[in-house]
Structure to design on (186 residues):
């Protein structure tokens, strides 16, 4: 029997992007995590999508754990209002610590770093490097990840990724439904 998910790691951009619905989705994700009493684990930033998801969680009374490399504290303007900030030395250590703390992964819009995190966690699942299977979901706000979803389908149909590969993300356009997929609706 799998353990209930008590913390979800959210990967997202340190910038806000160019569409207001991205930040709205980040805040709604944070609030939804708090409403379900699920701890947010994220990259520790205080601005952009990172700041919005943390603020959404905090505003709804939830718990937030940030994990950030020491050298990025100033660069990303580390969030000053969260309950717990963990400083690490490297980006790889950051991902490993976030994965250790979370029972599932949720991906919001972001850039290269966000995709790096998504694919690293999917690869770790494929190689069975997680202690237990950890579900991964992608919030496809305003169709942001449509092309990625199509590419992943093609990677399976063209024989590069077996259809039974663990770690393949679930795509959804609404936060409640995505959380239901990741942790159940109980």
């Amino acid at each position: 029997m799998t353990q209930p998910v008590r913390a979800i790691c959210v990967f997202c951009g340190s910038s806000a992007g160019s569409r207001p619905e991205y930040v709205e989705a980040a805040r709604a994700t944070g609030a939804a995590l708090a409403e379900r009493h699920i701890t947010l684990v994220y990259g520790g930033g205080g601005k952009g999508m990172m700041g919005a998801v943390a603020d959404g969680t905090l505003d709804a009374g939830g718990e937030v754990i940030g994990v950030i490399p020491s050298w990025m504290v100033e660069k990303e303007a580390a969030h000053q209002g969260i309950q717990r900030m963990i400083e690490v030395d490297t980006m790889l250590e950051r991902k490993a610590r976030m994965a250790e703390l979370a029972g599932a992964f949720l991906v919001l819009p972001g850039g290269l770093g966000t995709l790096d995190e998504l694919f690293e966690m999917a690869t770790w699942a494929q190689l069975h490097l997680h202690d237990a299977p950890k579900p991964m979901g992608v919030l496809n706000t305003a169709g942001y990840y449509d092309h990625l979803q199509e590419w992943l389908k093609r990677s399976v149909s063209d024989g590069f990724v077996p259809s039974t590969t663990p770690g393949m993300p679930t795509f959804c356009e609404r936060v409640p439904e995505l959380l239901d997929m990741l942790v159940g609706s109980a």
